[in-house]
Amino acid sequence: MAQRMRTENLKAWYGMNQILKGITMDIEKNAITAIIGPSGCGKSTFIRCLNRMHEVNEGTRVEGKVWFEDQDIYAQSIDPVELRSRIGMVFQKPNPFPTMSIFENVAAGLRLHGIRRTSELNDAVEESLQMAGLWNEVKDRLQHPGVSLSGGQQQRLCIARALAVKPEILLMDEPASALDPVSTGHIEDLAIKLKHQVTIVIVTHNLHQAARISDRTAFFLSGDLIEYDNTKDMFISPSDKRTNDYISGRFG
Amino acid sequence: MLVIVVLLTSLALIPLISILSYIIYKGAPAINLDFFTKLPAAVGETGGGIGNSIVGTFVLILIASCVGLPVGIMAAIYLNEYMPKGMYSSTIRFVIDVLLGIPSVVIGIFAYLAFVKPIGHFSAWSGGLALAIIMIPIVTRSTEEILRLTPNSMREGSYALGISKWRTILHIVLPYSIKGIVTGIMLGIARVAGETAPLLLTAFGNHFWNTSISEPIASLPAQIFEYAKSPFDDWIQKAWGAAFVLIMLVLLINIAARSLTRSRLKNVD
């Protein structure tokens, strides 16, 4: 499979704490890559480094290279704002914009990128909501506040919002951890469906989820990449003892 | 517990209600059409009004707002969004807190020395600037508090869409906090609308219509001050009337601003 992104010796700090201790890994195109590991192992920080979201917090620092296509996204010439419209992100807690309607939430990215034509916006909003599997549930109340939806719907709204700007990569930071099992199922189905259009990197606490949906799985521990393999291989026969301990529930 | 709370609440409401009702009781009889439209009458004459003071107060608030609101709000945005920590911003915060505590008469003297003395005469704009100086720390502090309450997840959601920082502030953060910001603006306006001391040193007062901001201008508080210390019953009566108008004015500005910022979104059941 073709590779979409590659990190080389990626290190990240939060204040004085080193969170990532040199991660080198490839992320494959049109696949779902799952990042698993116990809390505090740096998996969220890792994906936040992939679209330069780590640096929006104060006191953070990143070293190493992250290749996206043929460019280092930490190079001087890269505008992080523009980069983030190509590498979207969905967060742990659904965060629709509270002042905006369902429609405006999805259209926000496009509007702020300068698209004004109503017909174009209408089409894009419908398409994105369709992709996120939310269209049928909300098509009659697009003008209602985004926050009036249920938690699971809000998360799919956030996915639709991220998809609207047509990212090439979608980073998902434990997107289902705040949701009930049914909503979680929706999100998982969605991820599997979406991977033909976008490359997905998903951080998850839920090992079953990683096993169900991902093509490749990376196991992180205390800021190191311990093992990275095809999901099937890793869950059936992990090569590292620590991976085995983690996926068999002995710690974490 | 509940009894104590209710008791203390009503205790707190007593001054408010008694001031309001006393001003209405004393001031309302002075109100008629002439009161709003006519110039002050000379001593001994009956009739006349405070039309020029009402206009003057509007002009002064307008000047103060044009200067004070942008500065105050921008300062708050800078402090909270661009430089939340560090020596520089904590110094700014400290200075703002000091500015909040400076008696308004001192600001009046400052404005007198800075704006009136060099020009050589009292003027509306020097009064407006003095009021702006009083307004800035109030607006900055309240706006900053409100901005600090906006959830960070909202900003992150916006950054993750490839929206730049200033657009995020303009289109996501400010709309979310607009109600709180407007409340802070109202506090600032209400505070300066009643300021008297700095105006006596800057805008001074004027018994005639004035449309030029480089001339002295009348204002409600200065007019109340002048009338209330006079020995004439008619003038004292007018001072009550002017106080009544001033309170109503502040109330109206408040209501107007609140209805303007009412949420555009449909309420959900």
β-strand percent of chain B reads under 5%
The name of the CATH architecture of chain A is 3-Layer(aba) Sandwich
Q: Which pair of chains has the greatest number of interface residues, and how are they split between the two chains?
A: A-B, 34 and 25 residues
How many strands of chain B?
Answer: 0
What is the strand arrangement across the widest sheet of chain A? 6-7-8-3-9-10
Number of helices of chain A: 10
CA-CA gap between termini of chain B: 34 Å
Sheet having the most strands of chain B = none
Mean pLDDT over the full residue set of chain B: 91
Broad structural category of chain B: mainly alpha
Helix fraction of chain A by DSSP (H/I, runs of at least 4)? 25-40%
In which range does the helix fraction of chain B lie? over 70%
Query: Which blocks of ≥5 consecutive residues of chain B have pLDDT under 50?
Result: none
Which geometry of chain A do the CA atoms define? globular
Task: Characterize the structure shown.
The complex is a heterodimer of chains A (252) and B (269). In chain A, strand 1 and strand 2 form a beta hairpin. In chain A, the strands form two sheets. Chain A has a six-stranded mixed β-sheet with strand order 6-7-8-3-9-10, sandwiched between helices. Chain A starts with a strand and ends in a 5-residue tail after the last helix. Chain A has one domain: Rossmann fold (3-Layer(aba) Sandwich). Chain A contains ten helices and ten strands. In chain A, 37% of the residues lie in helices and 27% in strands. With 269 residues, chain B is an all-alpha fold. Chain B has a single domain, classed as MetI-like (MetI-like fold, Orthogonal Bundle), CATH 1.10.3720. The longest helix of chain B has 32 residues. The two termini of chain B are 34 Å apart.
